[in-house]
Amino acid sequence: VIEIVRGSPGHRLLQAAPAIGAGAFVVLAPAAFGPADLHRVTRGLAIGVTLLALSYLLGQVGLLSLAHGALMGIGAVAAAHVLRDWGLPYLAAPPAGAVLGLVVGAGIGIVALRVAQLHLAVFTLAIAVSFPILLRRYGGGPLGTPLPERARPTAPEWTGLAGFDEEVWQFLLVAAGALVAYLAVRNLCQGAVGRAVTATRDDPVAATVFGIDVATTRVAAFAASGAVAGWAGGLVVLDTPFVIWTDYPFTFGIELFALVTIMGRGHLLAALLSGLVYTLLPVWLADRGFVGDETLIYAAFLVLVVVVFRGRGLADALQRLWHRLVLIVAPGDRSGDPSVDDEDLEAVVLLEPLPPWTRR
Amino acid sequence: MSLFLQRLFDGLQNGAIYAALAIALTIVYRASGVLNLAQGEMAMFSSFLVVVFVSEPSPATWGSELVAGLGIPWPVWAAILAAMALSALAGAALQRTIIAPLDRSQPLDLVGATMGLFLLVGAGAEKLWTGRLRTVDSPFPSGLDDYIPIGGARLRYEALGIVATLLAVVGVLALIHRRTRLGLAFRAVSSAADAAPLVGIRVGRILMAGWAIAAALGALAGGLVAHSIGVDPDNMARLLVFALAAAALGGLDSPGGALLGGFAFGIGEALLMGYVPFVSSDVAIIWALGVLVVILALRPRGLFGRSAAVVQR
Questions:
Q1: Do the Cβ atoms of A293 and B127 come within 8 Å?
Q2: pTM higher than 0.90 for the full model?
Q3: What pLDDT is attached to residue B309?
Q4: Which of A118, A120, B131, B246 is placed for a possible disulfide with B22 were both Cys, Cβ 3.0 to 4.6 Å?
Q5: Is residue A93 within 8 Å of residue A79, measured between CB atoms?
Q6: What is the helix (H) or strand (E) element at residue A328, kind and residue range?
Q7: Partners of residue A130 in chain B, C-beta under 8 Å
Q8: What CA–CA distance (Å, rounded) separates A73 from A214?
Q9: CA-based angle A83:A86:A91, to the nearest 5?
Q10: Closest CB to A111 among B102, B119, B293
C-alpha cells in the first residue's frame, strides 16, 4: 500500500493528474491521429457527453432511460435547425441542442414521476424506436439534412490554427464542449443539489421529510440530463455536416445503456472516456480481424456478467483496486487513520442549506 | 363500407401478431415481474430457426447442415413447431442462468439483463445468418385468390389462419391457466411468490415454465409473420413497440388485456393508414407512441392491470 499525505505535493499532483492527462490528450491527439481517426475521436467525445448524461441519470438520479441516443439526435436536429434556418453561427449549435434536450428531458421526467421504472423503460424504448423513423420521414428523407457551408467550423486567424486541417479545429471545439459538459455534470453531483438528487434516489420518503420536493428535483434532474445529451447532439453537428437518421438507430440508445452498465453507473469520467471506446474500439478490433457483430456479442456478455454477478462496473472495480493500493492519509498521521473521517465531513456538509427549488 | 371492412381485415393479422408478442410479455411479467425487452429479438431469432428447418442444407444458412440428418427441409408448420420447442428450451435456460440470479427489487439490473439479452440475441442472429433478409412460405394458403369475399372486402385465408391460430393458442393457455395444476401453481406464484414455496410449489420451475411458454409464443408469432414481413435481424423492433404499447394498454400483468390491446393496435393502425393520407406504415408507430404516452400519463396500470405499475412513493 502506498500512503500519500493529504495536501502534499504528491497528493496535489495526483489531484491534478486527470486535468494534466486531459490537457496532454487535447494537445497530442491532433498530431497522434490521422484525419479519419481524429474524426472518430471527436465523435467519440460527443458520444461520451451523452454517456455522461446517461451515467448521471442512472447513477446519481436512479432513473433509467433507453432514449438518450434519441435525445442526442434531438439536440442535433435543433442545432441543425438554428444553423441552417436561422443563420446563427456554429457556436450556437450546442446551446440550441441543450435547450431542446432540456424540454424533451423534462417531458420524459414528468412521465417518470407517474410510472414505475420498468414502464419508463418501455416508454423510453418506444421513443428510441420512433425517433429514427420520424427523422427519416421529416428530417430530410433518407439522405438526411445537409448543413450549409457557412455552418462548417473553421479556425479563426487569431488562433494560429487556420492552416491546419479543419478536423483539428472541430476536435478542439468538441473537446472544449465536452469539458464544459463534464464540469457542469460534476457540479450537479456535488453540493446541496447533488445531495438532494441522491436523497430522492435513495429514499424519496426521507427526502420529503427533509423538505426536498422529490417531484421537482427528479424532473429537473431528468431535464438536466436531457440538456447535456442535447448539448452532445449540438457538438456532433460541429463535426458532421449533416444530420441523418442512420446515426441514431434505436439500438444506439441500448448500446449507450449497455456501455454505462459495463463501465459503472455514475462514474462520470469513465462515461466520458467510454465514448472514445465506443468509436475507436470497433475499428481497433476490426484491424485485428474481429468483425462488428462479434464486438457487440462480447459487449452483451459483459453487460450480462456485470448484471448477473451484481457488479458495479469496470470503473468501480478499478477505483476499488486503486483505493486498496493507494491510501490518502491526513498530515502527521501515517497510520492510515485520517484525522477527519468521512462521517464528520458528511455531518459538516449537511449543514449547508438546500437550494430553494428543491424545497417543498 | 367495403373499404372499412378491408381495413378491418388487414388490421386483424397485424393485431394477432402484436397480441401474441404482448401476451408473451405479460406472461413473463406476471410471473416474475420482469419485462422482457428482448422478447422481440427472441422471436426474431426463432423465425431464423424456422428458416433453418425449411431450408435445404447449405453453408449459406447457418444451422441447416447441423440438422441435415433430420430430413430437412420440413413443411412450414413442422418448422414452426420445432422452433417453438427449441425457443422454449432456450427461454427456460435464459431464465435459469440470467434472470433467476437477479435481485427483482433492482429495476436497473432487470432492464440491464434484458438489454444484454437484446444485444446478444440480435448480434448473434446477425453473426450467424449474416443479416440477409430471408423469406419463408406462409403456413396458410396465401395465393392471390385465397380469400373469402365478405361485403366486397377480402378476408384472406392467411389473416384468418393467423388469427384463428393465435386465438386457439390463447384458449389453450387460458385452459392450462385455469384448469391444471401447472396453472394453479402459476397463479400462486403470480399472487404470492414468497408464500408459494410454503405449499410445495417450486417457484424456480414455474418461472422457467413461464419463460419457456413466452419464448414459444414469441416463436409462433415470429414464424407466422415471417412470410409477410420476411426474416431479418431488424424487423422485430417495430413489432416490439406495438406489442409493448398493446401490453401497456391492456395492463402489463393482464394477458387478456394484452390480447385486446394487440387487436386494438392492429386495427387502429390499419384504419389510420387507410383513412389518414399522410400516415404511412412507418409513421403509424407514432400512433403507438402517442397511445403509450396517454396510457402512462393517465392510467399506468393499463385498462385491466393491477396497481403495481404505478410508482410507489
A1: yes
A2: no
A3: 46
A4: B246
A5: yes
A6: strand A326-329
A7: 241, 285-286, 289
A8: 29
A9: 40
A10: B293
